[in-house]
Amino acid sequence: MPEIVTETYNANQIQVLEGLEAVRKRPGMYIGTTGPKGLHHLVFEVVDNSVDEALAGHCDRILVELMPDGSVQVSDNGRGIPIDIHPKTGKSALETVLTVLHAGGKFGDGGYKVSGGLHGVGISVVNALSEWVEVSVWRLDTVYIQRYERGFPVTELIPSKSEEKRRGTQVRFKPDPQIFTTQTEFEYDIIASRLKELAYLNAGVKIEYCDRRGAELRTDIYCYEGGIREYVAYMTRDKEPIHPDIIYVNGERDNVVVEVALQWCIDSYNDNVLGFANNIRTIDGGTHLEGLKTVLTRTMNATARRLKKIKEGESNLAGENVREGLTAVISVKVTDPEFEGQTKTKLGNTEVRGIVDSFVGEVLNEYLEFHPAVATSIIEKALQAFNAAEAARRARELVRRKSALESSTLPGKLADCSSRDPKLSEIFIVEGDSAGGSAKQGRDRHYQAILPLRGKVLNIERADDSKIYKNNEIQALITGCGLGIKGEDFNESQLRYHKIILLADADVDGAHIRTLLLTFFYRYQRELLDRGFIYIGCPPLYKLERGKTAQYCYSDRDLQAAIATFPPNANYNIQRFKGLGEMMPQQLWETTMNPATRSLKRLTIEDAAEADRIFTILMGDKVAPRREFIETHGSKLGFADLDI
Predict the structure, then answer these.
(1) DSSP single-letter state for residue 640
(2) DSSP string spanning 446-480?
(3) How many CB atoms within 10 Å of residue 511?
(4) How many angstroms separate the CA atoms of 127 and 220, rounded?
(5) Fewer CB within 10 Å, N or C, the chain?
């Protein structure tokens, strides 16, 4: 149980920076979007406050509940939000935190040493965008309760004697349908993914998750005493490790806490390195990841030379050679984090680079000295990658020569658009000449390009770079889309289209083609998915005709719902589209390509660890995990309603 020190955390530690006027008028500025992602972000903001209490050492239990009335309740056993009067606002510290933007215990001294909520907009923004919020605070045998509606308090802060021997904060809120007009219902799995991630990143913190909305209570508990070591073990459980023990680094220097877990695997040509700073996933990297990559490359080269695996005068292993087959998590906790951009996706603290380098270097060197067989296995895998690099380099040079924007060097099968503005341009990747022909005739040539692929794309989960770059269909994808070279920094300016749309038949073969393409994009340049450039096109399954009227149905559910609207004994005709090639160009335009009427699914990665594991299971060499996955989940997949 964390030490009780509530008396030292009071209103003097809450600093006010500005008011809360604009949140309801411009919610997108604060939560990014009022769609599903923004809706779930509200939950994460409240949970992050509880996790910050855990980071400060004052909380070890968090409960998240999805309630039947559409609200969410988050409870913890932390110190409880201060309730005394704030010297600047004249209101209670609780009301100040709930109603004033940038008011919190994360800007001054004494509140939080380490926090993910750098911008301090969390709970006040949740309050502003909720139909109502109820907050209960337990401090010193007293419970304080206050209710807010659309950002304004509607009751006083009411204290009463608490019969419970507890402390902490409970926040219950219901999203405002005036703000979240498309969706107010929370999706269990999206929240579960983030809670699981937080439990891995904060070893020993118990996060309980309950869904009370259905007839039966659903409960999951996330608590990992092994922290990020268990995270790496989870990600590599379907792979064959080179070393049985996960290499683990943990230390603190100059108020920077560093945790690293490393596992090299034999049966992988890729690396999967996840970086976190103050529990925030830094998808754009930063100084902590730079320090880790630098020390890995330097240490493995020094070890290779010590073991005479690299001889005098021979070139060093490159960073990507060393990291081939590596799964790693690095988590740093920084007192004063400097994030680049409001989205906090890149850490900028320069001192972190050297601290990570120092800690990891010491532990990794010692481990490799005491485990020479492991060192030899890792280095031999890196040398295989290095020796294959020359063939890959020649293939890459060919790709580079084909990657210029002039039409003469683009794939001959590409039907390009006339626009040269990537933000306005989109490309449909279709399988087969017949589907490609319909798409070419049905498209808007000004901004829509068509790239037909022949057959199924190479499964790059089982291929090295030399094979990848020699493959004609892969070359067409790289040059046609302007993707650049794997392993090099993502260059958005070279991307020729900001919408890359995968368009395949709605059957098993189409699902396989989509999975192969997604494996390519995920492993080749994951930034395309991280930045939202990849989409799934949704062609209809049926054309339903009754008299002179016709409508398109995109699933069996849609079809049955449409038929249910007809009078009894009505005559109607159903046309089942077996493939895109069966559709007339005008039909394909109306249903699948016209921005005014089509349905596109934008692909994002909320859970990188789970995504990596699923790609390994579905596309890797091992048959048993794939069979188990299909047997477990196959019954949930109706191919008529297939959703990737």
Answers:
(1) G
(2) TTEEEEEE-SPPP-GGG--HHHHHH-HHHHHHHHH
(3) 17
(4) 27
(5) N
For 372-401, write each residue's pLDDT tens digit: 999 999 999 999 888 876 666 665 565 555
Helix pair angle (350-370, 287-306), 10° resolution: 30
Q: List the Cα angle 15/335/20 in 5-degree steps.
A: 30
Residue-wise over 203-214: b if at least 16 C-beta within 10 A, else e? bebbbbbbbebe
Angle between helices 608-619 and 508-524 (to 10 degrees): 120
What gap in Å lies between CA 37 and CA 31, rounded to an integer?
A: 8
Dist. CA 184–CA 205, nearest whole Å = 29
Q: Provide the annotated active-site residues.
A: 431, 505, 507, 509
**Residue indicated by tokens 């006083």:** 156
Type and span of the H or E element at 221 = strand 218-222
pLDDT at 566 over 60: yes
Per-residue HEC secondary structure of 556-586 comes to HHHHHHHHHCCCCCCCCEEEECCCHHHCCHH
Written as one string, the DSSP assignment of 399-419 is HHHH-SSSGGGS-TT-B--S-
Question: Quick one: residue 286, left, alpha or beta (phi over 0 = left, psi -120 to 50 = alpha)?
Answer: left
Spatial CA neighbour of 542 closest among 552, 531, 550, 527: 552
State the Cα–Cα distance between residues 20 and 100, nearest whole angstrom.
5
pLDDT digits (tens, 9 = 90+) for 130-159: 999 999 999 888 999 999 999 999 999 999
Question: Using the 8-state DSSP alphabet, how is residue 92 labeled?
Answer: B
> What is the DSSP code (8-state) at residue 518?
H
DSSP β-bridge partners for residue 159? 144
- Residues in contact with 483: Cβ distance below 8 Å, sequence separation at least 6, in sequence order: 477, 494, 495, 524, 525, 528
Distance CA 622, CA 616 (A): 9
Domains in the chain, CATH or no CATH each? 6-222 (3.30.565.10), 228-383 (3.30.230.10), 403-539+586-641 (3.40.50.670), 542-576 (no CATH)
Average pLDDT over residues 475-495: 77
- Neighbouring CB atoms inside 10 A of 556's CB total 14
Computed on alpha carbons and rounded to an integer, the radius of gyration of the chain in Å comes to 27
Between CA 421 and CA 403 the distance in angstroms is: 17
Run of H or E residues at 326: strand 326-334
Q: How many angstroms separate the CA atoms of 206 and 110, rounded?
A: 25
pLDDT in tens, 220-265: 999 999 999 999 999 998 889 999 899 999 999 998 999 999 999 9
- The separation between the first and the last C-alpha atoms of the chain, rounded to the nearest angstrom, is 43
Instruction: Give the number of other CB atoms < 10 A from CB of residue 235.
Output: 25
